[in-house]
Each structure stands twice: as structure tokens, then as C-alpha cells.
Structure to design on (253 residues):
């Protein structure tokens, strides 16, 4: 069983021509949103020490093209938790829930959880980043850039960097049992944002195979620590596409 890797240029959103308005959702749905909290949320120390626990509800207006504006606290927990919830929600990318629609422009509400026990489990599972590019400042605009806009490209922290990805995939891929049982093959194309922190967010499958291949492809991407792209001496957010091919071994005659 083997996987092949293809690096693709940034996904270019074509000009929207839909005639209807509909619900907007975080890119990647609930799973991607939960992963964002798991990877990016930082529990304010003062809130942890005070035993503050609960949810901050954030409201944001989402424009027809998925852009956000007027992000606000709809339900407060504490000043420190409110500020962190606002920061994390500003990292969410949005898309129409149904093909052929535009985002309606109405306010969307998202609850950001602050739970000490859950947070401690999250921290234990996070990649550690230190030194090198991580000593550089972070771009404060939160803009998501393309590969062409970067001075230094994104790279996974594995031997060989991007060039080492095929070997990493061949060693780490676990062919999903259901896909193997039904002889499913094909390519899963993923798009995601590499945050300035080096974490991956807003991950979505653009092409899918089924049988658990999407979940396995996403697991492989999150399995690696990443170095963010750089522009003008700062760490920035950037969009990347990776395709992973699921191919069953040839049966002997």
C-alpha cells in the first residue's frame, strides 16, 4: 500500500455568480472548527487560576464571498476569555453551506469552549515549536496569502521538508480498512491554512475517495509539525493544497 504526493498551487476562488443566498459555515465544518480550538486556543492564565469555565459566544457578519466583519462578543465569560475567543474566531474561514449559493450576510454565532480539563488534553497533543522562524514576529493582518506572495515557503518539519513528504507518507499511511475491503482507490485533495503558529486550520477535502480515506489524509497532515510561510520578515498565514493518492498494492499472479 502506498501513497503519492502532489503539491498544487493555491486554490483560486473563481468569481461568484450564484443567484441565491444561503447559510454560511466554517470551512471544513464542525470537525475543522473543533480542530482549530484544539490547536490554537490559549486559555488565559488568570482565567485558569480563577477556575473560570464555560463558553464565549461570538457573533460575526459573513459577507457573500465569505469575508467576515463586525466580529463581536454575543455572550461574555470574562474579559480575558472574551479576547481570546475573538482572536481564535478571526482565524475561521467561511464558505456557503450549499453549492451554488452565496453567504447570506447575516450574523453567525459560534461558541468557543473554555474547559480546563479539555484544554490540558489539547495541550498535551500539540506540536511544540521553538527557535528559527518561530522567533520572528507574527503578521497582525490575519490575511491568508498564496504561495506566490511568500518570501519563504511553508514546509513540514520532517527530514527533507517538502521533498521528504513522499517517503513520510509511504511510511505513515494506514490504508483505511473499509477502503481496502471495497478496493477503493483514488486521490484525496486537501486544502488548508498553515497558521503563523505552524498549526493547520480550515482543512477541507476538495476531492474525495470515501471509505475513510479523507480522514486518513487529514490525520497524516496533522501528524506533522509545520513551519509557516514568511513575508517581509514576519510569520504569516498561507493557503496550501496537498493531494494524497491511495493506491492498493498489485496482486501477484
Amino acid at each position: 500500500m502506498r501513497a503519492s504526493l502532489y503539491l498544487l498551487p493555491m486554490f483560486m476562488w473563481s468569481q461568484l455568480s450564484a443567484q441565491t443566498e444561503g447559510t454560511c459555515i466554517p470551512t471544513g465544518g464542525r470537525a475543522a472548527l473543533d480542530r482549530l480550538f484544539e490547536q490554537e486556543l490559549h486559555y488565559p492564565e488568570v482565567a485558569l487560576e480563577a477556575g473560570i469555565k464555560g463558553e464565549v459566544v461570538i457573533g460575526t457578519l459573513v459577507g457573500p464571498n465569505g469575508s467576515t466583519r463586525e466580529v463581536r462578543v454575543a455572550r461574555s465569560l470574562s474579559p480575558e476569555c472574551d479576547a481570546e475567543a475573538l482572536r481564535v474566531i478571526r482565524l475561521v474561514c467561511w464558505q456557503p453551506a450549499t453549492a451554488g449559493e452565496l453567504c447570506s450576510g447575516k450574523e453567525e454565532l459560534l461558541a468557543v469552549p473554555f474547559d480546563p480539563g479539555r484544554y490540558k488534553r489539547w495541550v498535551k497533543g500539540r506540536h511544540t515549536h521553538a527557535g528559527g522562524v518561530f522567533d520572528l514576529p507574527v503578521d497582525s493582518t490575519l490575511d491568508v496569502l498564496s504561495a506566490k506572495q511568500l518570501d519563504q515557503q511553508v514546509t513540514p518539519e520532517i527530514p527533507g521538508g517538502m521533498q521528504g513528504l513522499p517517503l513520510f507518507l509511504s511510511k505513515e499511511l494506514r490504508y483505511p480498512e473499509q477502503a481496502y475491503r471495497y478496493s477503493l482507490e483514488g486521490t484525496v485533495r486537501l486544502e488548508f491554512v498553515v497558521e503563523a503558529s505552524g498549526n493547520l486550520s480550515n482543512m477541507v477535502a476538495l476531492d474525495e475517495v470515501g471509505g475513510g480515506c479523507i480522514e486518513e489524509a487529514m490525520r497524516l497532515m496533522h501528524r506533522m509539525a509545520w513551519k509557516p510561510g514568511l513575508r517581509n520578515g514576519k510569520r504569516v498565514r498561507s493557503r496550501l493544497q496537498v493531494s494524497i493518492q491511495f493506491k492498493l498494492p498489485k496482486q501477484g499472479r
User: Anything to note?
Assistant: The first helix runs from residue 29 to 40.
